[in-house]
Design brief:
Elements (H helix, E strand, L loop, with lengths): L2 E5 L8 H14 L4 E5 L5 H7 L6 H9 L6 H10 L3 H4 L8 E2 L5 E4 L5 H14 L9 H12 L5 E5 L6 H9 L2 E6 L3 H28 L12 E10 L1 E2 L2 E2 L1 H24 L6 H8 L8 E6 L4 H8 L8 H8 L3 H28 L2
Helix pairs in contact: 1-2, 1-14, 4-6, 4-7, 6-8, 7-8, 9-10
The protein binds adenosine-5'-triphosphate and magnesium ion.
The site of magnesium ion has 5 residues, from helix 1.
């Protein structure tokens, strides 16, 4: 059975998609078979993996029509038609798309994912009066767990909203990680994240009870918070510059004081003891899982060739960076630093989810 991890923060633009891709890649490099799932109708993860071809509408239509490819387009349409997940899996439904990493696969997203979002929200609220819709909330998590059965990890990239789809995916996952960036808006988001998860948790409990779903229900309602990945700060001597460090500390403190205790009460956080053990010997404090500085110009090469920055070869940096001498050396060294940082993040995630 695959372990599932959500990248979630309802704050937009904090690197959820980029981290889903990078974490998926690094776990795949460490020998795990990984499926990354694009559940955002913006389809940024799909664009990142398929490359610039994904911007071309005609090319994408052909991609969705190709029966070799299993995509969210077909999955969402089937759920809306009321097909049972177990029945959907019968027959040839195509396969997730293989990325440039042999162990890493993508379940591509589609604009129509947002249609399901509103259906799930409505079903969660009114299902007690309309039994016909009772199966909608659990269908997508069930379908995805069946698709992911032969993988070690499934990583979900979610949109920055608090709709029904994000609710059922987060609450059905085994674990979640919160990407964040060091600024006031992310600090503000910690409090609303807490309120939101607590609300989601109690709504799912009420829904489950009102329908008498047993322990086999696909929404387990016990996702464990593993920590935050704080990113996009400007470094100084390989550490966050002072003003960024200030925000990093504030966000970490807010997570420890305001988010972790209520999550503990509902069984939705990794144990402090385990997190401490995993961070032992680093300069990180719970619940920070990693600090990732700004990628700067490496990001452009990475997006151009659909590979994470830390996986770029010397040759790719030389060819696409179009810089020489000292500037080129800086890029290569920077790639090596990110490689070490993401390698460490991957190891921490493996240990926290073992
Ligand atoms: N460490 C980083 N350094 C520099 N740029 C980054 C970093 N991480 C992500 N980015 C860039 O920041 C932008 C937002 O990242 P991304 O799309 O991953 O965020 P997101 O949280 O998924 O956004 P959304 O909420 O829209 O889904 C992108 O242009 C991405 O390339
Ligand atoms: Mg995104």
């Amino acid at each position: 059975m695959a372990k599932s991890i959500c990248l979630f923060n309802h704050k937009g633009g904090v690197s959820k998609t980029t981290t889903a891709f990078n974490l998926g890649w690094v776990l795949a490099e460490k020998g795990k078979k990984v499926l990354i799932v694009d559940l955002d109708s913006q389809c940024n993860l799909t664009g990142l993996v398929l490359g610039f071809n994904a911007i071309d509408g005609d090319h994408m239509e052909l991609f969705y029509q190709n029966r070799d490819n299993l995509t969210l387009k077909e999955i969402v349409a089937s759920i809306i038609e009321g097909v049972r997940p177990e029945d959907y899996m019968v027959g040839n439904r195509g396969k997730p798309f293989k990325t440039k990493n042999d162990n890493l696969y993508l379940l591509p997203g589609h604009l129509n994912t947002s249609d399901l979002d509103s259906q799930i929200s409505v079903a969660l609220k009114i299902a007690s009066g309309v039994p016909a819709t009772r199966n909608i909330p659990g269908s997508l998590p069930k379908m995805l767990s069946l698709i992911g059965v032969n993988y070690d990890y499934i990583i979900y990239d979610l949109s920055p909203n608090v709709g029904g789809l994000n609710q059922v995916i987060l609450m059905s996952s085994d674990y979640f990680i919160v990407p964040t960036s060091p600024d006031y808006f992310c600090l503000q988001a910690v409090n609303s994240l807490k309120k939101n998860i607590i609300k989601w948790h109690s709504e799912i409990n009420a829904f489950r009870e009102s329908h008498g779903f047993d322990s086999s229900f696909s929404i387990k309602n016990k996702p464990k918070f593993l920590g935050a990945v704080q990113q996009r700060y400007r470094p100084r001597y390989e550490k966050p510059a002072k003003s960024f460090q200030g925000w990093i500390n504030k966000i970490r403190d807010a997570i420890n004081m305001n988010l972790v205790p209520p999550l503990e009460e509902i069984g939705c956080v990794a144990s402090l003891e385990k997190v401490r053990e995993v961070l032992d010997g680093t300069d990180l404090n719970p619940y920070d899982l990693a600090h990732i500085s700004d990628f700067n110009s490496l990001i452009a090469i990475s997006q151009k060739i659909s590979k994470p920055i830390f996986a770029l070869t010397d040759q790719e940096i030389k060819e696409h960076g179009k810089v020489f001498g000292h500037a080129e050396d800086t890029m290569l060294k920077s790639r090596d630093r990110f490689s070490a940082a993401f390698g460490d993040l991957g190891d921490r995630v493996l240990r926290l989810t073992e």
